[in-house]
Design brief:
Elements lengths: L1 E12 L16 E17 L2 E12 L8 E13 L2 E7 L16 H4 L4 E8 L3 E11 L7 E13 L2 E13 L12 E14 L11 E16 L7 E14 L3 E10 L14 E12 L4 E13 L15 E16 L5 H10 L14 E15 L5 E2 L2 E2 L3 E17 L2 E12 L9 E12 L2 E7 L23 E8 L3 E11 L7 E13 L2 E13 L1 H6 L13 E15 L1 H4 L6 E16 L8 E14 L2 E11 L14 E12 L4 E12 L2 E13 L26
Length: 711
């Protein structure tokens, strides 16, 4: 059995040169983030013949459904030699050998699965990727649609000769039963020489200098539109130079074209000329995982102004850019005993769970949270014009997970999250997939891709505790640090993919803490974004006297300040129950930019003083808040108030058999009203090791006592 996942983020910034601005636009501003999942069973039929059957799932984060596309995997692979492979059925997609103008590198995210036939060659003197991909079969008024591609390279020592072609065909119905459509062809060809030198082969002292290369490419295009107009022929020239310095690949390229049009190539090559710079790097994280990122920027001439008038200003340029990040991982049951490892983790959950010498690669884990959380505003129906309502959340979260650990530093998780609310329809998808890769880059520094750790250590003014019951699961990328003198949680979480009807929504957060002895400095930044180019175009009105909405809404918050932590029992043995005294001061700022043009941009600030103690696990505390025009979209709505006093207490109780309990409550005096909140959270883990922390986030106070914290 094979299982592989690619967690990716692709961001295209057209800098105003979208398709809606001039005839041959350069695509659209786009941000995609999600998982591409393959699960399959394979069988060696003959020494040179392998059959594979499975399923592919496309899981864009923030989509209306958790899985937007499901396709079967049916593949027959014939390998007569180690250098040649013939494939029928599901192709090995990606096609990384193609020029970006012939076949866009972004297609690996936009058309991640292909069906047809393919011939791959990788020998000492010749390399090839030849394929046919059938996208749509004839069905009534829908014509056939397919594309054929070839990328070949002849190698003569340091000299290479590249040849490529790509043909896209729309039309040609099988039986010609319906003539209500016209055919369309797009054919792109590219050829040119390449010189590749490897300095590390000749100079031992320069082992880090892997490559230096230069490539010239001549391209032609033929495009027959489906409106009966004459075919368009174009051409282009590119000079591309690059280096490979210990895996880092900077490059510079120059493009010049005329009427060039490639249906599956990067649309930015429609521009007449531009210079391009870029950088990419692939990190191998053992045999089963890799991390890849890349950035590029092109200086493209702008032929219009913001008001839509075409002035043909030749000296106006825009830096069109794009970035991508990929975390690839896979596991194969041929490299581990899946059934034996899972049975061992179920039958002996508490044995050797921290034994680094164990040869178990698979482990079954289960994390559960039973919760009751009650909010009562005690007659207070609004704060600063914002309505309030009592809420009671009760239910259970379950998260069964299969973990694969190919190395002590790499953990790959596949599972399912199920939310079972009681007595209330909480606003989240009750069943969601869990796909996560976690890699320890250096000791106490971890990179997480996919399903990220949910318990961010933000103060309540920035990130409301009660959000645990409206968005219990988050998808994106995360960087966690847990060093002696520095702790960090840096993440991006994608909530909604952009469409013409819905704005993209995501948030980026950073919570850091620098500590030295009893003193520490806390810093937090949180940005919540809603908008996007496509969504803005669908709701923007132009005309005399008509207001124009802002393209996006943003809520930006910061918090920073000192903290002092004293432990009296270290200096006074007569009071071992007196564990901590904590005092924290924070200065907070907010900037809120709504999408409505009639609403002003509001800038606010706030001051928070929190002090608490830890008395044998009981943690009473008091908080004083003063705010001026402070606006927080994800924080507790109480912080809209100009001032309040909060007092509360909480306790974590470690119970037998993997159970832990947090109970607590707090009250606030707001506008002469006493509001109160109470909660009880029961966390249980199969192997007594909380996996993802579906518990309330740790408080900035008393970090060392939080049984739910991942720090």
């Amino acid at each position: 059995m094979r299982f592989s996942t690619t967690t990716f983020m692709l961001n295209l910034e057209k800098q105003g040169l979208e398709d809606n601005t001039f005839t041959n636009g350069l695509g659209r501003d786009t941000t995609l983030i999600g998982n591409l999942v393959n699960a399959s069973l394979y069988k060696r039929l003959l020494p040179s013949l392998e059959a594979e059957i499975g399923v592919f799932a496309n899981m864009p984060f923030g989509h209306d459904t958790e899985i937007s596309q499901v396709r079967p995997i049916l593949r027959l692979t014939y390998i007569p030699t180690n250098q040649i492979a013939g494939i029928i059925g599901t192709l090995r997609s990606g096609h990384r050998d193609f020029h970006d103008a012939v076949f866009d590198n972004g297609n690996r995210f936009l058309r991640p699965i292909e069906q047809g036939a393919q011939m791959l060659v990788d020998s000492a003197h010749y390399r090839q990727d030849l394929f046919i991909n059938w996208q749509q079969a004839f069905r009534g008024s829908a014509p056939n649609r397919f594309d054929v591609g070839y990328a070949g390279q002849l190698k003569f020592g340091p000299l290479r000769l590249n040849g490529q072609a790509h043909w896209v065909r729309n039309g040609q119905a099988l039986f010609k039963l319906d003539r209500s459509f016209d055919t369309r062809d797009n054919l792109v060809a590219a050829a040119g020489p390449e010189l590749l030198l490897e300095p590390s082969r000749f100079f031992r002292s320069m082992g880090w200098w892997n490559q230096i290369g230069v490539r010239f490419t001549y391209l032609t295009s033929y495009n027959q539109a489906d409106d009966g107009s004459d075919a368009t022929r174009g051409r282009g020239y590119e000079l591309h130079t690059w280096l490979d310095l210990a895996g880092w690949r900077p490059y510079v390229a120059f493009w010049k074209g005329r009427n060039f049009l490639s249906q599956q190539g990067d649309p930015e090559f429609r521009a007449s000329n531009f210079p391009e710079i870029g950088l990419s790097k692939t990190f191998r994280l053992g045999e089963r995982a890799s991390l890849e990122f890349g950035v590029q920027a092109r200086r493209i001439r702008s032929f219009f102004t913001e008001d839509g008038v075409n002035y043909m200003t030749r000296d106006t340029f825009k830096w069109v850019n794009q970035q991508y990040l990929m975390f690839n991982w896979d596991w194969d049951t041929n490299h581990a005993d899946l059934a034996g490892d899972v049975w061992a983790s179920i039958s002996r959950p508490f044995i050797d769970r921290q034994d680094e010498g164990s040869d178990r690669r698979f482990q079954m884990q289960l994390d559960a949270l039973t919760y009751v959380y009650h909010i009562n505003y005690a007659g207070l129906d609004q704060i600063d014009g914002r309505p309030l309502s009592h809420r009671t959340f009760a239910g259970q979260y379950l998260a069964p997970v299969l973990r694969y650990s190919p190395s002590p530093k790499l953990h790959l998780d596949v599972g399912l999250f199920a939310g079972l609310p009681v007595g209330d329809l909480q606003p989240f998808h009750t069943v969601q997939p869990i796909l996560s890769a976690e890699y320890e880059m250096i000791p106490a520094m971890r990179l997480v891709a996919g399903t990220i750790h949910r318990n961010h250590p933000f103060v309540d003014a920035i990130f409301n505790d009660a959000m645990l019951f409206s968005r219990p699961l988050e998808q994106g990328f995360q960087l966690l640090v847990d060093r002696r003198h520095y702790q960090q949680d840096l993440f991006i979480n994608w909530n909604q993919v952009e469409t013409f009807q819905k704005a993209e929504r995501f948030d980026v957060g950073y919570a850091g803490r620098v500590a030295a002895g009893p003193f520490s400095l806390n810093g937090q930044v949180y940005w919540s974004h809603s908008g996007g180019a496509q969504y803005s175009e669908s709701r923007t009105f132009f005309g005399p006297g008509l207001p124009r909405d802002r393209p996006a809404g943003n809520n930006f918050l910061t918090a920073f300040g000192p903290q002092i932590t004293l432990q009296p029992r270290q200096y006074w043995s007569a009071v071992p129950w007196f564990r901590e005294i904590d005092v924290m001061v924070l200065y907070l700022t907010s900037q809120n930019e709504p999408t409505q043009a009639g609403s002003p941009i509001v800038r606010g600030r706030g001051y928070q003083l929190t002090a608490g103690v830890n008395l044998d696990g009981w943690r009473p505390y008091v908080t004083l808040w003063r705010g001026e025009h402070f606006v927080t979209e994800r924080g507790d709505p109480a912080y809209y108030a100009g001032d309040f006093t909060e007092f509360g207490i909480l306790k974590d109780v470690a119970l037998p058999a993997g159970f832990s309990l947090r109970i607590g409550g707090f009250g606030r005096i707001i506008d002469h009203h006493l509001t109160h909140t109470g909660y009880a959270l029961l966390n249980w883990s199969w192997n007594q090791s909380p996996w993802r922390g579906f518990c309330q986030r740790p408080t900035l106070l008393h970090r060392s006592e939080s049984s739910c914290s991942q720090f």
